[in-house]
Structures are given as structure tokens and as C-alpha cells.
Specification:
Length: 136
């Protein structure tokens, strides 16, 4: 069993519920919704954590793509200019899930993208504007 986070973008007028139901029923995938921005008649976006076997998650993702849902791993939606980071630690103070932490030995910033919940608080917190997140 693995856990993997994905950003889903639904086309207008598509409901996500039957698709989520299929993921659970057909592919035995557990779904944890971490963020949702869904507006009637407009494009909707979800951050999901999928838990299941690697094979079933891959099949489930292909199922979504076949149903016109844009489905990408979360780390592909986070753009961080790591090479410019000065390790000031400002972003760690706002990152409540602990995706951004300071290594207590090297005092370098560490970023575990698999813990990110796309709250986007690190974007204004970084004085060098090193974060960009493509969610919607
Ligand atoms: S968006 Fe930034 S602050 Fe929010 S959880 Fe992700 S890394 Fe942490
Ligand atoms: S706030 Fe910006 S410069 Fe400071 S540690 Fe975080 S990413 Fe690096």
C-alpha cells in the first residue's frame, strides 16, 4: 500500500462524486480530500491523497484521465526555486503540516512535498518569492 497526493482539475459541469465512487469501488482506493475548490458551472479543483496498491492507483488515475479529468501528482504542481533559497526559515513558521522544516544539523531547508496541503501560505511568507503553486 502506498499514499500519493494528486491535484485533480474537473471540467465544467462534471460532478466528482461518481468518479470518486468508482475509484473506491473498482480500484479499492481510499480517498482523503485535502483541499477542494468547486464552483457550480466552473472548473473544479481537488487535492486528493490516494491510498492503495501502486498498480490500482495507476489504474485509477488512468480512469480519471479517460473521463477528462486532469490528474497530476502534487509535486508536479509545486514549483520551488530551491537553488535560490537562503535558508532563512520564514516559510517553516507558516507550514502547519510540516512539509517545510529546517534540518537541525545543517540548518538547511527541507521540503517534503508529499506533506503539502496547498494552503499557499508559504508563497507570501518567502521574502524571495521562491514558491509557485499551480492548483486551480
Ligand atoms: S503550500 Fe506551502 S505552507 Fe502550505 S502546506 Fe504546502 S509547503 Fe506548507
Ligand atoms: S522563506 Fe524562502 S528563502 Fe527562506 S527558507 Fe523558506 S524558501 Fe528559503
Amino acid at each position: 500500500m502506498i499514499k500519493k497526493r494528486y491535484v485533480l482539475n474537473f471540467p465544467p459541469q462534471s460532478g466528482d462524486k461518481p468518479l470518486s465512487y468508482q475509484l473506491v469501488k473498482e480500484y479499492d482506493i481510499r480517498i482523503n480530500i485535502l483541499k477542494a475548490e468547486v464552483y457550480p458551472g466552473k472548473r473544479g479543483s481537488l487535492l486528493l491523497e490516494l491510498q492503495g496498491t501502486k498498480e490500482n492507483i495507476e489504474k485509477g488515475v488512468h480512469y480519471l484521465i479517460r473521463h477528462h479529468v486532469i490528474c497530476e501528482p502534487l509535486d508536479k504542481r509545486i514549483h520551488f526555486q530551491e537553488e535560490k533559497c537562503i535558508d532563512c526559515g520564514n516559510c517553516t513558521a507558516v507550514c502547519f503540516p510540516g512539509a517545510l522544516t529546517m534540518n537541525k544539523t545543517t540548518w538547511k531547508l527541507e521540503f517534503d512535498k508529499n506533506k503539502c496541503v496547498v494552503c499557499e501560505l508559504c508563497i507570501p511568507a518567502c521574502p524571495l518569492k521562491l514558491f509557485q503553486i499551480d492548483f486551480s
